[in-house]
Structure formats: structure tokens, C-alpha cells
Design goal:
By secondary structure, the chain is of the alpha/beta class. It contains 13 helices and 9 strands. It binds NADPH dihydro-nicotinamide-adenine-dinucleotide phosphate.
């Protein structure tokens, strides 16, 4: 029998992911701000649950896409009585590995499986079904999660036990954060020296310093001055904080990550909770007294 899927969290990336789930599986959605769930259901033909417990009642598999592991834990534990043996929770939040291990244990005590399944590729990747998804969990639960994850992902990798998906995602995010900061600083200096942003990127993108930030994010968002809001800087700051904890818990040097944490926390304070991650470069431009164009 086909799985019935419940999707919790129709935010910037959750919504386009849920679209693909709803086109393949019988889907029930719940969102804290109900109007977003109702709008989704009207377009995508899913059902709306009155609350998370009602959602859990109706489905075999629950997918969460919430800001942090704290909200995941709050929602999941608030419906303690609704879980049934044999159900599965797939958490696509960019979460905290230690929190996920604790949650997996709590769910395991109820006979419920857990797979951490964070995603990379942004809202455009979610729309295009090309997200990279890293799965952490036991083989039997991962096998069950795959057909659901396959609806929105282009690449799916089982990376290890519970929590390793979340660890890998957080460490990937540090590389993104460091690239944004370093590229922003480099380009600000080059523009001040009389090299245009476009010329600098033409060279960097044919050289060893290129990255997704120089190849895509800066040309599309900074040079155009478009600054779209697709992934909140506050969430990247959260990710870097998780990565720092992972490094420290693993007794690995964390110098670069500590700098990134300080820079992104400062940027978050200056730019607010709704700013996009790439807007950190606005802070670099402001401090340098130059626009990267
Ligand atoms: P958003 O802030 O856009 O959406 C957050 C979602 O969580 C909304 O549906 C919101 O509901 C809900 N929510 C927030 N707080 C609570 C709460 N206390 N209880 C219940 N629901 C709550 O975040 P994104 O969709 O951008 O990100 C979700 C996750 O995906 C994050 O972990 C992020 O790091 C990760 N991610 C995001 C990417 C992106 O490009 N945006 C890329 C890769 C990963 P409401 O509508 O009521 O606000």
C-alpha cells in the first residue's frame, strides 16, 4: 500500500519540496500559520490537518522542514500520544546531530523510525527537484524514506547513522559561509583598486578560488543588486553554530569556523532575522565604503 505522507513546515524551502511529495503521495500538510497550508492545499490538492496530532493520526510517514531542531522537537514531542509503532519521521530541517540522536531515541522507544535528511541546493533546487539530500539513519528506515526523498532530490546519499546527515550539512554550510565572506572581502578590495566585479569574477571563475558563491550567487544577486531573499542569514548563522559544536565535540581544530560564526552572528544582528544569507556582503560593502558592481 502506498505511504500516506504528512508534511510539516511550508516555509521558503519546505513548500516547494512538499509540492513534489504531494504530486506523488497522498499528502496531508500542517503549517503554524494556517493560511499557508490552506493556500498550498488549494493549489496542490493536499489535505490540511487541524494540528500536528491530527496529521500524525492520518499518515504513515511525517516529514518536517522547520528552522531548527528545537522547533522539530517541540512539535514532535507535543504530539507524544499520536505516534504509532511503525511510523517514520524524516527530518529535512538543517538540524543539530546531537538533538537528532536524542529525538531518534525518544521516537525509537515508541517504535517510530527517524531519518535525518537535510537538503542542499536552495529554493531553486527544490523547485527543480534537484536537491542534494544526505540521509542519516538505520538501513531499514533509510530504505523506506528514499521514495519520498526521491520526489524532491536529484542526489540522495546515505551518509551514516542518525545525526550524520545533519553533521555533514552543517559542515557544508561552513564552506558556504566562509566563501561568502572571503569572496565579499576580495571583491570589495578589487573594486576599490579599479577592477570591476564582473572582470574579477571572470578571472576568479577560471582560477582556483572559484566556488558556487563566485560562479552563481554573486553574479546573480550582488552584481545585479537584486538581493533576493531565499535563505535567511539567520539560518546560515544557526548552521555555522551547529558546525562549530560538531568540530569541538570531535576535537578537531575550528579556527576558520569560529571566525565565520562571529562574522555571521554580527551580520545577523545588523541585518535582522529576515535578511538573506548573501546580504552579508552588504555589511562588507558598508564597512569598505564600496559597492561591488
Ligand atoms: P523559513 O523560515 O522560510 O520557514 C520556516 C517554517 O517553519 C515555516 O513553515 C514556519 O511556519 C515554521 N515554523 C517556524 N517556527 C515554528 C514553530 N515554533 N512551530 C512550528 N512551525 C514553525 O525557513 P526555510 O524554509 O528557509 O528553512 C527550513 C529549514 O531548511 C531550515 O533548517 C533551513 O536551514 C533549511 N534549508 C533552507 C534552505 C533555503 O534555501 N531556504 C536551503 C537548505 C536548507 P510559519 O509559516 O508559521 O512561519
Amino acid at each position: 500500500m502506498a505511504e500516506r505522507v504528512g508534511f510539516i513546515g511550508l516555509g521558503a524551502i519546505g513548500r516547494p519540496m512538499a509540492v513534489h511529495v504531494a504530486r506523488t503521495f497522498k499528502t496531508v500538510v500542517w503549517n503554524r500559520t494556517r493560511v499557508h497550508a490552506e493556500k498550498f492545499a488549494a493549489v496542490e490538492g493536499a489535505a490540511v490537518a487541524a494540528n500536528p496530532a491530527a496529521l500524525a493520526d492520518e499518515v504513515d510517514v511525517v516529514v518536517t522542514c522547520l528552522p531548527t531542531s528545537t522547533e522539530v522537537r517541540e512539535v514532535i514531542e507535543s504530539i507524544a500520544g499520536a505516534w504509532r509503532e511503525g511510523q517514520l519521521l524524516i527530518d529535512t530541517t538543517s538540524g543539530d546531530p546531537a538533538a537528532s540522536r536524542a529525538l531518534a531515541q525518544w521516537l525509537g522507544g515508541r517504535g517510530v523510525g527517524f531519518v535525518d535528511a537535510p537538503v542542499s541546493g536552495g529554493t531553486s533546487g527544490a523547485e527543480a527537484r534537484s536537491l542534494t539530500t544526505m540521509l542519516g539513519g538505520e538501513d531499514r528506515w533509510v530504505s523506506r524514506a528514499r521514495p519520498i526523498v526521491d520526489t524532491f532530490a536529484g542526489k540522495v546519499v546515505h551518509v551514516g547513522p542518525v545525526g550524520t546527515g545533519h553533521a555533514l550539512k552543517a559542515l557544508n554550510q561552513v564552506l558556504l559561509a566562509i566563501n561568502i565572506q572571503a569572496a565579499g572581502e576580495a571583491l570589495a578590495a578589487l573594486v576599490k583598486l579599479g577592477v570591476s566585479g564582473q572582470t574579477a569574477l571572470d578571472v576568479i571563475n577560471a582560477s582556483s578560488g572559484r566556488s558556487n558563491v563566485t560562479e552563481n550567487l554573486i553574479p546573480q544577486r550582488v552584481l545585479t543588486r537584486a538581493w533576493p531573499r531565499t535563505f535567511r542569514l539567520a539560518l546560515l548563522d544557526k548552521d555555522v553554530g551547529i558546525a562549530l559544536k560538531v568540530l569541538q565535540d570531535s576535537d578537531v581544530p575550528s579556527d576558520a569556523t569560529r571566525v565565520a560564526k562571529a562574522v555571521f552572528a554580527k551580520g545577523r544582528k545588523a541585518l535582522g532575522e529576515e535578511a538573506d544569507h548573501v546580504e552579508l556582503i552588504k555589511e562588507i560593502e558598508r564597512a569598505a565604503g564600496v559597492e561591488i558592481t
